[in-house]
């Protein structure tokens, strides 16, 4: 009996110990389970909030598209779609800022402790458990008590990297991919002068004027933070990037003079790239010593060398990516699988931007010249279906990204938490931007007209001055860094500049065209002259531009086009006889299979059949409707005739086709006659 009693006591003690241990273990598990439930609820609430924020932007774009249709249907030209998107963004921003308040979470705890720096990540020890917190940004002293109420405003404020890595690449690539190279090369010298010299002149004029304005603001005691000369130059660089999307859309709709269109479009495409590299070079200006804002010759030369190095490296990277894509699409059978072909083209084009940024170059420059290279070479290797797909895909992405950015501009005016509006700085910025644009256009136009026979008319200069709108690139550069007082003031002023130029200058484009008596209704795909005098003037322009690209044209047409595309003359005819095996190896069997397909936007005419002469510099290949090819000698001045008498010029799939003249008609005598389809 005693042994049995002892055994029972031992069993009771063991059971009691087990129960105590289980209870002690169950308590943390219950607490952990409750914490997991709370965490899951917060994650679900955050997910719903993020979905609502994205839905706001989708509804903004939907409303913008419907209103655009209404404007196009009613033929309203006083407001472009981008200005409309900004208005809708402003309205939604007002509602989010003043109409919606998120209730304060009673569980939020605000503690303060002195820290000498602001680390990007904090580990907080709460009762032996470590939690990770990330830095969202600086908060003003008056906003400390309103942090929970501003949570929605913070969520609709995107990371600036979203603009650079997601929204900007399709916009810049589409600009290069849709570039009309025939009109671009006709005015290449003037475009390069406006884009490079003009942007630098504008940057320094605006920077110097703004430095004087800032000095005046300091003297009257209206400046609450540091604002150095390098900050003024940086501001001049970012606002020198023009984006006349509104004006160009109206130009395209009204069919304004092709030379004016080419000058404006070419300048806006290239000066965006120049402004990005120029702003990066100014940021990299680091003189020796404690004061990083003093002037030093070596530091300035180093920044200038960085400008040249970054721009040339980005240019080479973009062209190399385009050439690699052209080689892959030519020497593979991807054209048999159109979906794979389009996907490769899309990924290679987008990766150019990211590759340049990862290598320390500028993605904007790289993706721009990648688009130009893709349009010049790779486009000719794509199947007809992929050609249509790539054009429509990047056109759609450009439309959505551009309208999204302009909608976000309007939203940011009320949702951004650190605006600094200084009236004197704003007025000075408007005056400086106007004078900087004038210092760009008028002096350069005067110098260019000294060497041009086809002068840039005064009314063209006034229109270019008026059309210097600021847009997506200026906004993206200004929002990328808003950490300091100077950058916050720049960002707020830049928003007002964009609003004014898009609404006032963009909305007044039609009236400005009428005021300057600029001719409209000119087909952009035809020559803009019908009289003998105008025809001779245009031919002189062709001869003027020939010295810029005559050597390049011969090299590209005779060697690069046959190597990288399915068009152009056979290499067996252009390479020396000693290179015969190499020429036969590089010559694609599909070199002529697409000659009767439609080329890109550089096509002048479309032929379905008939007898055509294909002039390849030193030889002429003739083809008839049956597709048979014969070759023979050609005159040595074929290229000169092409450059001079381009009224009778055709361009199909990158190959220049010269129409045979009818025996009953004297060649090149009637300047009023044009080829009809």
From TrEMBL:
The keyword Transmembrane helix applies. It is a multi-pass membrane protein. The chain crosses the membrane at residues 54-71, 83-100, 162-179, 191-217, 306-328, 348-372, 393-414, 420-439, 485-509. It is found in: Cell membrane; Recycling endosome membrane. GO terms for cellular component: plasma membrane; recycling endosome membrane. Keywords: Antiport, Cell membrane, Endosome, Ion transport, Membrane, Signal, Sodium, Sodium transport, Transmembrane, Transmembrane helix, Transport. GO terms for molecular function: potassium:proton antiporter activity; sodium:proton antiporter activity. InterPro entries: Cation/H_exchanger_CPA1, Cation/H_exchanger_TM, NaH_exchanger, NHE-6/7/9. GO terms for biological process: regulation of intracellular pH; sodium ion import across plasma membrane. Coiled coil: none annotated. Residues 1-25 form the signal peptide. Residues 64-514 form the Cation/H+ exchanger transmembrane domain. Belongs to the monovalent cation:proton antiporter 1 (CPA1) transporter (TC 2.A.36) family. This is Sodium/hydrogen exchanger. It comes from Tetraodon nigroviridis (Spotted green pufferfish).
């Amino acid at each position: 009996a005693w042994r049995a009693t002892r055994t029972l006591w031992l069993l009771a003690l063991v059971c009691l110990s087990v129960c105590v241990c289980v209870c002690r273990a169950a308590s943390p598990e219950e607490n952990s389970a409750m914490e997991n439930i709370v965490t899951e609820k917060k994650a679900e609430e955050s997910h719903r909030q993020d979905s609502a924020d994205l839905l706001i932007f989708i509804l903004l774009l939907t409303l913008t598209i419907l209103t655009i249709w209404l404007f196009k249907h009613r033929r309203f030209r006083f407001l472009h779609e981008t200005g409309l998107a900004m208005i809708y963004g402003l309205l939604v921003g007002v509602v989010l800022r003043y109409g919606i308040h998120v209730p304060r979470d009673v569980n939020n705890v605000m503690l303060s402790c002195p820290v000498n720096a602001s680390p990007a990540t904090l580990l907080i020890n709460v009762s032996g458990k470590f939690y990770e917190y990330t830095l969202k940004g600086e908060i003003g002293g008056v906003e400390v008590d309103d942090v929970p109420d501003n949570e929605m405003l913070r969520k609709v404020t995107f990371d600036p990297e979203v603009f650079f890595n997601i929204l900007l690449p399709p916009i810049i690539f589409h600009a290069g991919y849709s570039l009309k190279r025939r009109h671009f090369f006709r005015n290449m010298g003037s475009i390069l002068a406006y884009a490079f010299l003009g942007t630098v002149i504008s940057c320094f004029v605006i920077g110097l004027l703004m430095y004087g304005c800032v000095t005046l603001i300091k003297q009257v005691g209206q400046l609450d933070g540091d604002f150095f000369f390098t900050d003024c130059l940086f501001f001049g660089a970012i606002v020198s990037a023009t984006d006349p999307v509104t004006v160009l859309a109206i130009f395209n709709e009204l069919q304004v003079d092709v030379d004016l269109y080419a000058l404006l479009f070419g300048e806006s495409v290239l000066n965006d790239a120049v402004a990005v590299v120029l702003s990066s070079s100014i940021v990299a200006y680091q003189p020796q010593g404690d004061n990083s804002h003093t002037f030093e010759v070596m530091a300035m030369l180093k920044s200038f060398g960085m400008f040249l190095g970054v721009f040339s490296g980005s240019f080479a990277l973009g062209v190399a990516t385009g050439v690699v894509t052209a080689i892959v699409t030519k020497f593979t059978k991807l054209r048999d699988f159109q979906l794979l072909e389009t996907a490769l083209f899309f990924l290679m084009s987008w990766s150019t931007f990211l590759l340049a940024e990862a290598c320390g170059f500028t993605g904007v420059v790289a993706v721009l010249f990648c688009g130009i290279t893709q349009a010049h070479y790779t486009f000719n290797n794509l199947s007809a279906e992929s050609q249509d797909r790539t054009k429509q895909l990047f056109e759609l992405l450009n439309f959505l990204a551009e309208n999204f950015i302009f909608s976000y501009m309007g939203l940011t005016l009320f949702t951004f938490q650190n605006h600094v509006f200084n009236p004197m700085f704003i007025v000075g910025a408007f005056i400086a931007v106007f004078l900087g644009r004038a210092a760009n256009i008028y002096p350069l136009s005067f110098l260019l007209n000294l060497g041009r026979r086809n002068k840039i008319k005064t009314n063209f200069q006034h229109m270019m001055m008026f059309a210097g709108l600021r847009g997506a690139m200026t906004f993206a550069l200004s929002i990328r860094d808003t950490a300091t007082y100077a950058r916050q003031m720049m960002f707020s002023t830049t928003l007002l500049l964009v609003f004014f130029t898009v609404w006032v200058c963009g909305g007044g484009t039609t009236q400005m065209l009428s005021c300057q008596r600029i001719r409209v209704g000119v087909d952009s795909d035809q020559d803009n002259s019908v009289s003998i005098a105008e025809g001779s003037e245009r031919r002189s322009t062709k001869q003027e531009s020939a010295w810029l690209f005559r050597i390049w044209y011969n090299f590209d047409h005779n060697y690069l086009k046959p190597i990288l595309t399915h068009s152009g003359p056979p290499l067996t005819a252009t390479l020396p006889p000693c290179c015969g095996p190499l020429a036969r190896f590089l010559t694609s069997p599909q070199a002529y299979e697409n000659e009767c397909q439609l080329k890109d936007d550089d096509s002048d005419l479309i032929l379905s059949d008939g007898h055509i002469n294909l002039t390849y510099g030193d030889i002429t290949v003739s083809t008839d409707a049956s597709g048979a090819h014969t070759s023979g000698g050609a005159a040595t001045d074929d290229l000169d005739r092409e450059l001079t008498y381009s009224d009778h010029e055709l361009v199909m799939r990158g190959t220049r086709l010269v129409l045979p003249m009818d025996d009953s008609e004297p060649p090149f005598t009637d300047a009023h006659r044009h080829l009809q389809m």
